[in-house]
């Protein structure tokens, strides 16, 4: 008995679902992917550069902050470095899922990053630089989420989750800022 070629009662396009079995070389990207894949990959590679630079900045701050009253800040720098590395890993994995190539090229890292590197020696300058970088990341992710809209729900959800952590980081750095 031949299966029906009409949509299910739920309104699904059965033919499109069946066509998803074709083009196996496209991996996770089916014909229903609505975003501009190359534009999303480019955005994600810039976000990857930003996250990698943030890892380096937080690691530097972790290793160079000193003083008897900076233990909590030192621990915060390390925690943030680890979380930024997790963000970078998630972004790189998503780029691969979209049939792209994650750009880890150190020669172009700072040019592609939305945030800046910081080599301050002063503790409060470190905190200020990290707060600025977090605010830059927050705005960058907000704009990426808006640009993607509902065309790529997986990438959008990942960016929303990363944005929430970046907001926590900004709040943490704000708490350490001496006014």
From TrEMBL:
Keywords: Iron, Iron storage, Metal-binding. It comes from the Bacteria. Residues 34-179 form the Ferritin-like diiron domain. GO terms for cellular component: cytosol. GO terms for biological process: intracellular iron ion homeostasis. Fe cation binds at residues 51, 87, 134, 166, 169. PROSITE patterns: FERRITIN_LIKE. GO terms for molecular function: ferric iron binding; ferroxidase activity; heme binding. InterPro entries: Dps-like, Ferritin-like, Ferritin-like_diiron, Ferritin-like_SF, Ferritin_DPS_dom. This is Ferritin-like domain-containing protein.
